[in-house]
Structure formats: C-alpha cells, structure tokens
Amino acid sequence: MRIDILTIFPEMFGGVLDASILGRAREQGLLDVRLTDIRPYSALKHKNTDDYPFGGGAGMVMMAQPIADAMADVCGEGFRGRRIYLGPRGKALTTALARELAKEERLVLLCGHYEGVDQRALDTCVDEEISVGDYILTGGELAAMVLTDCVARFIPGVLGSADSPEEESFSDGLLEYPQYTRPREWNGLTVPEVLLNGNHAEIAKWRRQQSILATATHRPDLLEKAALTEKERAWLAERKKGDAPMPEKIIAACGNDCAACPRYVRPPFEKTPEALRRIAELWHKIGYRDRVVTDKEIACEGCRPENWCRYALAACCEGRGIRTCAECAEYPCEKVRSCFAVTGSFEPACRAACTPEEYARLKTAFFEKEENLDRLRDERAEAKT
Q: For residue 352, what pLDDT band results from cuts at 50, 70 and 90?
C-alpha cells in the first residue's frame, strides 16, 4: 500500500515512520509512505502557503493553489485511491474505517495547518474528511501519523500475528481483555489461574468475558452496538447485579488492612498456591513463623474470634458488639497498645528481609494499625457531630 502525505512540515514524520512496526513495514516493502512538501508548489515569490482569511478573523488560512498543484502532481493520471483531509469536521476514525482504508491501493492525506484550509481546495481536491477525535491539534500532521499507524496494522504481514489486530480493543466493538506476562507472581499479585492451565477454550471464554466487563466499566456506550449474544447480555446483567467495587481497605479489629495483606484469600483476593508458598517462606524469613508452614496454614480469611491471637482483640470486639477497636469507648486500651508495640518490633526485620515493594505492602497491611484505627475513630466522632 502507498500513502502520500501532503504537509508543510515533512520533518515532523521521521521518527514515527522510521521506527518500530511502521519502520519494519517500510523496510519489508509492505508499506510505502511518501512525504510531499507543499511549499515548493506555491506560485508566490516567497513560497507562502497561507494568507489572511476573507471576512477577517484570527489566524491564517492555507491557500488553495499550492494544495491543488501538489495534489495533482502526487496523484497523476488515473489515480485510484482516496484523497483525505484530516480535519475536525470529518467522520470519526474507527477500527472499521481503518480496516476499510487498508484495502485501498493508495491514500493521499492532506494535513491542514493554522486556522484551516481554503474551502475551494477541499471541494476540488479531497474525497472525504476524517477526524481522529473531538479535540484541537496545531495541525494535521499528528492526525496523519495516527491514521497511517492505524491503517497499517490491517495490512497483511505488517503485524507479527494475523490475529493481533482482530484481538485488540475496538476490533469487535469491545475493549481488549487484560494482558499478563512473566513472572506468574509479582509483588503478591498473581496471573489469573485460567491463563495458566492450557485450556484454550476456557482462556478464550475468559478473555471474551473480560472484554465485555472492561467495556461495561470504561466505555459502556460501546455496548449498544457490540455484537453480544443474548447469553452474554444476560451474563453481564447478572454480574452488574452482584458486582461491588473492590474495597481499597478492609480494616480488621486490630487495625490491620486485610486488603493489603498477602495472606488474605477471601474473594476477590484469592491467591495461587505458588503465591501462598512464597508468603510462607517470607513469613519464616521475617520471623513471623518458626518454620515454613503449609498453604492452608498461611492462608487467612480474616480475623475471627476463634482464631488464635495473643491479644484476643477479635473476640473482645465481638463480645462488645463492635467490629473494630476504634469503636470501643476504652480505645486505645492497654491490649491495643501492646499490639501496636509488638507489631512495630517486627518492622526492622521486615525492612531487612523484604524488597522495597514487599516492605511497602507489609507496611500498609500491618504497620499502620494505629493510623487506621485513629482514622476510623475520628470519622465516627465527626459523624456524631
């Protein structure tokens, strides 16, 4: 495919066209992009391409003559393709339009600048106008780069996989599903198990559902035109009913933040066996455990009165009919102060044994007990006033 770009700033394009996927496509002969400077086509002595607008107003307008002559020279006799002006009045550039344009033999892109282009040039030299979004740019050059990149992805051979452009956001009317790569666990965050089991049917199902959820969350307007089956729409409706946003903090009786705790496994904070094993090793290294315990022993679903705790704070709260120590009239009592002190005594060992990322997470989970409970107490006091 050949794309000609008519511009008064051809020097803007070098880095974009010579690097990455576009650069390789040009080297392989899959894409022929040619830049044409409009200025030399000006009939004026100083090669001006713009002048003041008739009727007054701010800014300058690109003249018709240089554009028309440049377009005629580039297109030549028997031109077969589409001549496009990049402007805000045009139809929106979409994946469907990019796929359509990729089937053309040639495209000629006209980059406007200043306050716009003389309408007579658009009437005689352009087949259509395309917009890359509802915002203002200083010129059409950036828009031409966007269109070129977008169209090139649908030219056979440009991308490494024939499936790649069809699996990306907007290709089927939906946003793309989440992507993961190695390692399987990073900073306590794990790759969804379904992507690791080798069941391609289950993987495809998960990706489709995640695309639907991402679209419903970030671009619900796209769902109106998306090709969803009745079963998928019913599934989405059920998810919307039952879904609640993942809490930022889950404060336990003692002030721990369970949401940040790498041991916490209540949905939606499930952990893989590999992640739990690493946590068990870390707990032993820090000194929280005298040995590397089993996955079952390290996993935690939250404080319960029956769970062992040297301070029995969960049992104390249940006996008083409250959820956290912050709600107690005696807060901070001696037991809570002892809890703060003992927890703090582990902080140096955590710093020494953990990576900065691990320590930051443990700090949020365990070493901000007092701040969490103080905040809850203050919020309760404010609510009563």
A: confident
Question: Residue 147 corresponds to which tokens in the numbers above?
Answer: 């269109």
Range of lowest pLDDT (125-129, 144-148, 358-362): 358-362
In angstroms, what CA-CA distances link 4 with 47, 59, 107, 377?
21, 27, 6, 67
CATH class of 185-242: mainly alpha
Cα 346 from Cα 206, distance rounded (Å) = 41
Residue 273: pLDDT band (50, 70, 90) is confident
Q: Which of 292, 286, 315, 320 is nearest to 303 (CA)?
A: 315
What is the domain partition of the chain in residue ranges? 2-161, 185-242, 258-384
Q: Do domains 2-161 and 185-242 have the same CATH topology?
A: no
Number of Cβ atoms within 10 Å of the Cβ of 197: 10
Per-residue pLDDT of 74-107, as tens digits, reads 999 999 999 999 999 999 999 999 999 999 999 9
Report the alpha-carbon distance of residue 64 to residue 177 in Å, rounded: 46
Beta bridge partners of 37: 7
Q: Which residues make beta-bridge pairs with 82?
A: 107
**Is the CB of residue 18 less than 8 Å from the CB of residue 122?**
no
Tell me if 174 sits within 8 A of 130, measured CB to CB.
no
Q: What is the dihedral of CA 217, 222, 227, 230, to 10 degrees?
A: 50
Res 20: pLDDT: 94
Fold held by 2-161: Alpha/beta knot (3.40.1280)
What are the φ and ψ backbone dihedral angles of 309, each rounded to 5 degrees?
Answer: -155, 125
Specify the pairing of strand 128-131 against strand 185-186.
Answer: unpaired
CA 169 to chain centre: 11
Q: Mean pLDDT in the chain? A: 88
Model confidence, pTM:
0.60
